[in-house]
Amino acid sequence: MRPIIIYIAMSLDGYIADINGGVTWLEGDGSGTVSMDSFFSFYETIDTVVLGWKTYHQIMTELSPEEWPYKGKQSYVFTHRKETDKQDIKFMNDDIIDSLDRWKTQPGKGIWICGGANIINQLLHAGKFDRLHISIIPIILGDGLPLFDKGKQDIPLKLIHSDSSNGITELIYEKRQQK
């Protein structure tokens, strides 16, 4: 079975984007070069990228407008918009849970849930993830797009790894069975 891995960065106060949807704050504390080693190690373990329209649009218009950064990985963009598929990118209006259930049993590497918050919260609350990898960026935004929905049920987790570099704390959790 292929693992479903949520891998995302958030501010210390739990936001994945600032109030204007920006992510220019995704850097360390300035004490050195931000190491991408943990991301590159993770990236080698996946062959599928899952994201929503807003995350896709931000990547294409702000973060990497010249070139799709996940070349060679099959990317699925969940959207209600009618878009034409591109090389390595398929636009889908299917149920994300059904799609992940199907892909999880197919041969391949891990499935990366790249964002955004809506997709991530659907998967968290449905229990449809194997690992949750959060990079906590040393900044307090005060407002913005929160990673987690408020007022939902508890989601028990087990910390399996933690690391810190340049002020960025990496936390990797697995689902824990509820008692």
UniProtKB/TrEMBL annotation:
A molecular-function term among this protein's GO annotations: 5-amino-6-(5-phosphoribosylamino)uracil reductase activity
Coiled coil: none
Bacterial bifunctional deaminase-reductase C-terminal domain residues: 4-162
GO BP term, example: riboflavin biosynthetic process
Domain of life: Bacteria
Protein name per the record: Dihydrofolate reductase family protein
Classification of source organism: Bacteria, Pseudomonadati, Bacteroidota, Bacteroidia, Bacteroidales
